[in-house]
Amino acid sequence: MGWPRSIVGALQRLNQRGLAERGDLFLSISREYTLQRSVPGERHGYILRSFGANAYRSEAQERKSSIPVEIPVPYQLHKLSEGPPQHTQTTQDELMKYYRDMALIRRMEITADILFKSQQIRGFCHLYDGQEAVAVGLVEALTDDDSIITAYRDHGLYLARGGTLFECFSELMGKRTGCSGGKGGSMHLYNVKKRFYGGWGIVGTSAPLGAGLSFAHKYLNKKSVAVAIYGDGAANQGQIYEAKNLAALWDLPLILLVENNHFGMGTAEWRASKQITFYDRVHYIPGLKIDGMDVFAVREAICYAKEHCMSGKGPIVVECDTYRYHGHSMSDPGSTYRTHDEIKGIRQERDPINHVRKLILKEGFATADDLKSMDKEIRKEVEEAAAKAKEAPQPAKDALFAHIYKNDAALQFHGFVR
Amino acid sequence: MLPESSLVLGLSFEVKTETGSTATAQQGHELLLFEALREGLEEEMERDPTVCVIGEDVGHYGGSYKVTKGMAEKFGDLRLLDTPIAENSFTGMAIGAAMTGLRPIVEGMNMGFLLLAFNQIANNCGMLHYTSGGQFTIPIVIRGPGGVGKQLGAEHSQRLESYFQSVPGLQMVACSTPYNAKGLMKAAIRSENPVILFEHVLLYNLKERIPDEEYVLCLEEAELVRPGQDITILTYSRMRHHVLQAVKTLVSKGYDPEVIDIRSLKPFDLFAIGNSVKKTHKVLIVEECMRTGGIGASLRAAIMENFFDELDAPIGCLSSQDVPTPYAGPLEDLTVVQPPQIVFAVEQLCKH
Predict the structure, then answer these.
(1) Which chain A residues have a beta carbon less than 8 Å from that of B61?
(2) ipTM entry
(3) pTM
(4) pLDDT value at position A133?
(5) Would you say A218 and A11 are in contact if contact means Cβ atoms under 8 Å apart?
(6) Is B87 a catalytic residue?
(7) What is the DSSP string of B157-194?
(8) Residues 6+ apart with CB under 8 A from B313
(9) Of B112, B153, B337, the CB nearest to A123
């Protein structure tokens, strides 16, 4: 059977031939996705990074200076016989990078908090501190060809996905130099070059849009996945279920990443959901639940999930058990529906940056003082970017009517003169 | 001046407050708009056990704008139902419940979220009384904050009144002061028809003295805010306050505008509006909807059709610009009608 010209063609032929031959058509598609296997390393029951995703993590580098890392919290699996490994490898450079990346996000969110309180940032501001491991682990496991889409808690992901501090702060302060020209705001951060699709205000939007991203990937024969991120609150939206069905029906390479921080604004997950697990909501889509505060767990799970999608098996759900230290947004104190002890406890026991810090200190890759000066450096970098963004100009007046349509320079607006 | 709009039980009102509506001078109690909404809600829930509130974070959290604060402790979790984030289904659920004898009030945390329930509201809620030949009534109230806020971003600055106005069977009202907020809330709950009550995200902290006695306003009536001779200014919701600001300047310049808060967005109170047009012969509409397809667009058509001979000038309409509301402060201010623009428009129209 020949390779179908397009997915649409394939579906038409499928309709004509009936269900019996369904496996055949889609098997031919999946063969295209399984790339050359790399030199087999340890057998994990699947080929780790067989698609050559992460160039920096070559076999040679790994053997040279890598240390083993345990992933203590066991994965919970749904319709999967074997999950990702409970241990992985890392290097000094990698650890320092993860520390720095997460500390940068943490410091940016703390700065955003201060800026909001001094009214430099207005409107709604949803902070990501506590959830840094998800952003950093996710981006580590993907390539620049993969697409990411999330909801309104997007500052951390924007930064992790290659956005600059200056553009982020500019956007938050509504300046011309912002990534969306100052017209989007906190909930509308985008980066087209890095395939970061934002940044959406309506809960649940990311899943159908993410299905669309993955549909385009498949249609255009790209060897990449789309990751649609949503929360435990969003999981009860009908459109999530619809997107899951579409993705499963057409074997779209979609990773549905649930950032389960256990609260949908003021409503705890058990008060909003009959079933409080999100990775096993749908019996025909496999899923796994991981410790979202462990950057290695996230990385391994996404690698595993990408492999799953790339081998043509369709969508997969990855539920990350994570936590947000701030309230839902800056308008929510975050303490009327949970206790300060709970927040403090999570900070002490499960903080994602502390986890990496402990590893660095244990392996002797840096001293506590080294990390402290790195923190200082990061703080300086973030505050400088914020100060620079503060000085940046506001959007020009004619930005108001720009970008309503593409090529809209000739569009004229009539009406009562004001 | 006794406003045409208030059905007051046994008391006459004389003194105008700063916001332009009337209340007794010494009696009454002062409160904020969100508290007035809560008072109306509580009174109706005490009066009728079938009245219940359905929405996100309305119960234990007390409402994201504190409208239902403290009510779950008083009325229980069933009557202040905290829903999952599923607007389409819980709005549908409320409509189904309304069909069978309950009187639910659906709160959209932001009106924009109710776009997810558009099908339920347009197809199921508005049409059923008609398509069933009168067998079913849907005494539902759908309420929530909408409008352009303070840099909330495009998706949280929607004006849904322009999208819903074509749906037959729906009634739409917009409150603008604590006094009319409470009165309209009570009227909406008591109405047998589906009513959408548009609150505004920036008006919740308006303070006013309202009567202690119970009062219910009429859903279909407009409110005469300021009588005048020169021009009729029709407005509603937040723009009422921008208009009143502009009126201060206009009065000092020697103009005498008549300000009517139309309150009822569907159907329009053409009786009150017509009487005013016959007096002043000039109309300016000031609204927050976008220019295209907004309430102003429909109102212009209605006035032109019915009162063409009374008009000495084309109907002026100041609306928000046809753009997604930008986040940047200065751009957002350009989007919405500002008082100096209202002054300018009145000056232009009064030249006729």
Answers:
(1) 265-267, 336-337
(2) 0.87
(3) 0.86
(4) 98
(5) no
(6) yes
(7) ---THHHHTT-TT-EEEE--SHHHHHHHHHHHHH-SS-
(8) B281, B282, B283, B349, B352
(9) B153
